[in-house]
Amino acid sequence: MSTVCRPSLSLPDHVVSLDDVVFHMEQQHSEHDRLGTALNLMRSTSVETRHLVDPLEIVTSPRTFGQRMRRYAEEGTRLGVMAAKQALDEADTECAEIDNLIVVSCTGYLLPGLDAYIANQLGLESQVRRLSFAQVGCAGGAYALARARELHRASPGAVTLIVAVELCSLSYQAGDSSIASFVSTALFGDAAAAAVVRDNRPGFLLEDTYEELAPDSIGHISYVVDELGFHFDTNPRISRVVANAMPQLRNWLREVGEITEPEFLVSHTGGPRIMYEVSKGLRIPAEMFDLSEKSLKGRGNTASVVVFDVLRQTFENPPNSRDSGLIIAFGPGVTTVAVTGTWVS
Hints:
The protein is α+β, with helices and mostly antiparallel strands. Helices cover 39% and strands 25% of the residues.
């Protein structure tokens, strides 16, 4: 049976507070006609600190797309390899045992991809099967776990290494004065995480997977790409899309496991409003989001990394053996991804 072992988390050295970022945006956009509203939205994100691959003065300085992507290659590989090595140690697993490598990242572009760089630096076997996902955004962590479950159904006994790398600060655009830019500047942080999926280990036993692409929501979470790089854009109506997705997800939970209320939860942060809609729609107690809120508060929204961070914290005070759990995340599309499982001690 395929179990997600204790994940690892790799954080950059530079730490920035929300107050620092709000002050920067206030100075950068002092003539903005909705400055007060924009700054209040930044403060409402619940984020207090985040980790960045560069000091704030470098993050906020002008950079070309090429400069950003070179930084992505350097730091993305370094942090990804660091997280992977720690995850292998946590799972008592050797590089030679890895059959599959799954890499998720939506914050940069490389050819060959991060998967090739990470596989080479780890010294994985040359025949390792690699899957790389670059456009699933914040759903990436849950998406990777769902794909790992499918791989293990096809090849029982396989060993899979998942690595998530997100360097969101490389998308900061000094000249972007949109409200979405203010919010994303306050919300997103940099991090990498990794986890091993294999049999006969304690952790989250993967069971069933769910995925839904919401109709008429393509533009709700998106990148606009220009000569300077990525401009992240979100539509405030995303919370309504999430709310509308909950009844179908609740029905699916009842069908596959005859449960609608899991005994523990590994939820992507998204933001306070997203967590509220999930809590309301699935009738999950608000305290089940405590670890997600802790991740958001201390590290910001780290996109695909979040579910591994929350799962890592879950290991620190683990559920009872055989407790039912749910992993859930949302990404571009708008896509809902969920994975059910059981805790194995």
